[in-house]
Predict the structure.
Amino acid sequence: MALAGAGASALRRARGLVVLDGVAAAGFAATLAFTIDALATGKGFRVWLALLCLAMIARGVMAKLALEAGAEAAARVKAAARAEAVTALVARNPGGSVSSAAVTTAVVEGVEALDGHVSRFIPARFAAAATPLALIAVAAVASPIAAAILLGALVPFIIAMALAGTAAAAESRAQFLALERLSGMFLDRVRALPVVLAFQAESRITRDLARSAEDLANRTIRVLRVAFFSTGALEFFAALSVALVAVYCGFNLLRLLPFPVPEQLDLKRAFFVLALAPEIYLPMRRLAAAYHDRQAAEAATASLIALPSASPRTDAPTLTEPPVIRFSRVTIHYPEADAPAVQQLDLEIAAGKIVALLGPSGSGKTSLLNLLLDLAPLTEGAVLVNGQTLAELGSLTGQIAWAGQHPLIMPGSLADNIALAHRSASRAEIESAAERVGLAAALSRRSAGLDTWLDERGSGLSGGERRRLSLARAILKPAPILLLDEPTANLDAAAEAELLEAIAEAARGRTTLIATHAQAVAALADHVVTLA
Ligand SMILES: Nc1ncnc2c1ncn2[C@@H]1O[C@H](COP(=O)(O)OP(=O)(O)OP(=O)(O)O)[C@@H](O)[C@H]1O
């Protein structure tokens, strides 16, 4: 995912602040050394103490500002990543399929995992690269030998960091995959809850979920174990090098070193080096602490990259009249299928006329409707609207009223669900659409009428009522093209006869394509095409 640019200025600020923090650390060590020296000599003690306090305050302020800048950068990167992932999903390639569980985990947990990487790891990595060597160079001004000890001790520290990082990478990836598996499983089982209950599979599903949850817990513990071990090793080397410097400074001050050295430290220089030593390791310890954030982000990024990407579609210019639609030698071949769903089809729907598609199940009727909705891939040929190809025009979906075979039902009232197709419809328009498709009888049985609450499964609606709801949406939406997919399936002959009038009325003044098995519906058409 190309997230370059998002949060870049906040990140630059965070990096600048961590460098300034290094400068303040040197200032703190210097003022501490001079304060101690002034305490011994009695000269300028108050001035040095005031400067020491100032250095401490400056460090606190800089740490706070760096945290804020890191958090701001992370918030911007996460917002950009989420927007990019959602745009890619909405504009995904027609006919491609993505597991909704993988998408949910990638967009929610995956994007969230970028937080620590941007807010902590990136500034910490910059500080670890820039500060330790600069501070060792500063320490060398006071004591070249202490600086050499600090430099030498950096080597095992860096090796320990690299080893810990490699071990953590594999564990983090495994943990993220376990999380993805558990989220996917949970989402699927919640969706299929009525089926689970109907087949009395609750205990088996509970066991499966418990196993997945335990797997995630075990993998999380392994990640934590690697993190604790690596932190322990790093703290050991940091403490060891500070101790070595302390021993060297102490023995040098007391002139008790068992070997000759070319320098003699005084109290001021010894204190300066001693106060500076922990500061040299601090950025690397912070980096090690933030290393898990990087691993988590890497594991999550793999899932984000796996999401399909497609450039957002442009919308076709608004059609003021029902258009002529022509399918010219159209072939639809789904990427996963062995054979094409539709091959070399020629078909023209005159402006404002109705064409019915008849044909056995699987002959490609729905696929042809889906082609106009950008939901099926155009493998060969062209779809022309008023003589222009869809590729030239852009997406027509905003100008199509559509009643599909499996209407999407959102949690909300029946009225809200009808209005999904046309958000600005008035209550009177919604009521009229519901009545025209014969929902009135169904509504009279429910005390709340159009305000009857539906869950996302549409529980409580019969198959026929779902069809009617779908048709009501298509009737409500003012669009010059109408696509109906099996509008009378699941209805008995009497209900079908009732709906025919509503369909004929809905098609009036629109270019209409109806996929159907019903001869009565086909009889409404100006032209009937039978697919092989
Ligand atoms: N997303 C898809 N990926 C792969 N194959 C698909 C996809 N959608 C449809 N197909 C296949 O394309 C062929 C045509 O399917 P389509 O749904 O268009 O037929 P249909 O005539 O509308 O069938 P029905 O009358 O049962 O609704 C079928 O073999 C189907 O399995």
